[in-house]
């Protein structure tokens, strides 16, 4: 055990002494999450503000009717009646945001609503935000006019137009703030964690196994008075804790960053942080730790089996892709429910448990226990396989023969 | 002190197996410098790796200080310091930190570790770079650090595979002088080399190995007499050519 801790300490010390590794592995993801969400949030705000201040340029062949619709839409607008040479091109060039062509310019809006053979044609450019937004606003304006007309028809027929609003409805959402935020986190976090658990292993885990073989630095350890099992466990322990640290830091950064984005970048948490309670955080750490253990043991086994870091990465990629697919499936409501025995599939059971952890009203202790036992059990077996490989020259010296 | 007893080593590959050692037997006595001389791929490194417990013989035994390298590898590693020219050092740790780590790994007391670091760094001329990160080291500095790692636990037997490979003439001289000094302290030393001059100057006895077979073993005069040549280089070529012709 002492030797295992020595190896672990040395690996950790070496990693944390390298400022570039610490920055790129532990600090950069935090900065990226905070900056990316901040940028996305402020871009959304700015775009929305710009659209609200935009004066939409509308081409029409009937100014009075167009004005009627646009006033109902409640937007700033400018009407153009001189037909451009190429209308489509003018819309593409953003000179005009929307064209509104009335099939018979002599008719009134009442007639357009009442008669079957009249229509309004719209020409927009869906890839341009202003054009799409102008179309939406105009549709809203038309629906307002339509409602007014229907009401007046009903009144003239002696029918109370209020029936259009009946039955009256009232909705009460009983989901707590924690549940609402938890549902989102349950959708996003398992996916993010899987990515970060593997990303950490690719950089740190393979460096300490296949990388050491490649650089010929492993031999120095092997000729000293330390058992191969201690070396294997020391490295697995290091990978496990480094992965856990990276995954947790990234999760917290992701949650804070997203929370800031949702709240317009104005405060540090708001309702979003309500998803985290002390017991949930403890269970989150335990579940992620069990996932980290299994990833570390897989990476250690592959790392010592492979000749080079490149080969190790190639071996791991299919597993990584499967884990990402499971992560993506977990983002769909009920996405993992149809997978048989998911609770018994190492690592994937962690994704399912994390989802349950955030979306259930009560903490699923039994599911967490099962996940931890299965993951740790499989990890111990893989660690034993790894230590056997460390003791076997065919694997340790695979680079040479 | 060291006995190779009919050692065979086969590296099994998918298409073709390679026999790296064929029935190799020899003994190294306490306090002598023994040199394994041979061309590249002759089996020198394989023999030394078996001795240092990194590889396991396919057949035969290697006994070090009465301990079998396969069955009592921990006891063997306690008594052997191994250095190979294909070992490398990288990373952000300093020599001092690395030596402390290997001292602890060899279960030495803290006081002993510091004493060993002081004396090894003094002798090998490491004081200028002892507290610098290894990533900044020259080849010579790395080699000196590797030697210090191999010797941190004061092993009785020192196994150096191509000890002067890649070193400049001054560093190579320091290393060879140090080996002589270690011999005077009663240490047993085995080196492998393909440099005739190193073998001629350093070794009490020499074994010439080629195609995995130990062709000849003895003191320099004994080898010259057996091969009817005037110097070690001629003796070496006559043995290697004989092997190629066969």
Which secondary structure elements does this structure contain, and how are they paired or packed?
The complex is a heterodimer of chains A (about 400) and B (about 250).
Chain A: H1 2-17, H2 19-53, E1 55-60, H3 63-73, E2 76-80, H4 87-92, E3 98-102, H5 109-114, E4 120-123, H6 129-156, H7 177-208, H8 210-215, H9 218-222, H10 228-262, H11 278-305, H12 309-331, H13 348-359, H14 365-390, H15 393-396
Parallel strand pairs in A: 1-2, 1-3
Antiparallel strand pairs in A: 3-4
Chain B: E1 2-11, E2 18-28, E3 33-37, H1 44-51, E4 59-64, E5 67-68, H2 73-79, E6 80-84, H3 95-105, H4 110-124, H5 139-151, E7 157-161, H6 169-184, E8 188-193, H7 196-202, E9 205-210, E10 213-218, H8 220-227, H9 232-245
Parallel strand pairs in B: 3-8, 3-9, 6-7, 7-8
Antiparallel strand pairs in B: 1-2, 1-4, 4-5, 9-10
Account of the protein in words:
The complex is a heterodimer of chains A (401) and B (246). By secondary structure, chain A is mainly alpha-helical. Chain A has two domains: 2-43 and 177-396, no CATH class; 54-165, D-Maltodextrin-Binding Protein, domain 2, CATH 3.40.190. Chain A has helices at 2-17, 19-53, 63-73, 87-92, 109-114, 129-156, 177-208, 210-215, 218-222, 228-262, 278-305, 309-331, 348-359, 365-390, 393-396; strands at 55-60, 76-80, 98-102, 120-123. The radius of gyration of chain A is 31 Å and the shape is elongated. The model of chain A is unreliable at 265-270 (pLDDT under 50). Chain B is α/β, with parallel strands linked by helices and 246 residues long. Chain B has a single domain (2-88, 155-245), classed as Rossmann fold, CATH 3.40.50. Chain B contains nine helices and ten strands. The chains are: A mainly alpha (401), B alpha/beta (246).
